[in-house]
């Protein structure tokens, strides 16, 4: 997987160029197309442990949707058991940090 370079709405090297989304998710009639787009961006931002910390505005910007719409799509992904949302406090400053964990089964290649 190559890192993104050049001008984009994301800083260079901040995310992967593409997201692998299992066909079972893409074809799931219970998921809205927008929720699948949000999932794709979470995948792009995720690290090796399938966890990411993007701000909701970071997800909303490239999709041209509101932060409230992102929240709705995250709830949809949580309900579908594809994403878990963790809220943690940082020791320094006591700030609340939200992380998103991808909990759908990993894609296995034979």
Give me the secondary-structure topology.
Layout (H helix, E strand, L loop, with lengths): L22 H4 L6 H13 L5 E2 L3 H8 L3 H13 L3 E7 L6 E7 L8
Antiparallel strand pairs: 1-3, 2-3
Helix pairs in contact: 2-4, 3-4
Describe the structure.
The protein is an alpha+beta fold. Helices cover 35% and strands 15% of the residues. The chain is built from four helices and three strands, in the order ααβααββ. It has helices spanning 23-26, 33-45, 56-63, 67-79, and strands at residues 51-52, 83-89, 96-102. A three-stranded antiparallel β-sheet has the order 1-3-2, covered by helices on one side. α3 crosses α4. The longest helix is centred in the middle third of the chain and has 13 residues, at 33-45. Mean pLDDT is 84; it is low at 1-13.
Tell me the helix content.
25-40%
Low-pLDDT runs: 1-13
Radius of gyration: 14 Å
- Listing every helix as H and every strand as E from the N terminus to the C terminus, the arrangement reads HHEHHEE
Shape: globular
Strand order of the largest sheet: 1-3-2
Question: How much beta, percentage-wise?
Answer: 5-15%
Largest sheet: number of strands, sense, barrel closure: 3 strands, antiparallel
Could you list some keywords that capture this structure?
single chain; 110 residues; alpha+beta; 3-stranded antiparallel beta sheet; 4 helices; 3 strands; 35% helix; disordered N terminus
